[in-house]
Specification:
- This protein is mostly helical.
- The protein has one domain.
- 90% of the residues lie in helices and 0% in strands.
- The radius of gyration is 30 Å and the shape is rod-shaped.
- The two termini are 19 Å apart.
């Protein structure tokens, strides 16, 4: 089948072959752009989930700071067991914040590298294909 296609191309003029090459190259570039968009969209979605976990870590970290402040104030002002309860809350918030931060870091690491690897590979294949077409058109 490939030999039949090459024989068909031998009968076409150079301008026709160049027009056909331009059309096919345009289509190919458009398809590569679409592939890159899809691949990057997936990576952005995963990175967004990781960023959300960092946001959760910030909220719980702020809560830990507030609870710790309340514990210090209660301990100094009253010297009653209220500070112990506030300290327990601060420790729990701190543990939650640490867990969320580690989960977020893991999700962001999974999104790397940001370069669309599949697209880069297919672009290399496409360049080779265009070179082959251009060389066969010169013969």
């Amino acid at each position: 089948m490939a030999d039949h296609r090459v024989n068909d191309l031998k009968d076409e003029s150079i301008p026709d072959l160049l027009r056909q090459l331009a059309t096919e190259t345009t289509t190919l570039v458009r398809q590569e752009v679409d592939l890159a968009k899809a691949e990057l969209g997936e990576k952005v979605r995963i990175a967004g989930a990781g960023a959300g976990m960092f946001g959760a870590a910030a909220v719980f970290g702020l809560g830990a700071s507030g609870a710790l402040t309340a514990a210090v104030i209660a301990a100094i002002a009253l010297a009653l067991p209220v500070w112990a309860a506030a300290l327990i809350v601060a420790v729990v918030y701190g543990i939650v914040a640490l867990t969320a931060a580690q989960t977020g870091r893991h999700k962001i690491a999974r999104a790397a590298p940001v370069v669309p690897q599949q697209t880069a590979h297919t672009v290399k294949d496409d360049i080779e294909w265009v070179k082959t077409r251009a060389q066969s058109g010169r013969r």
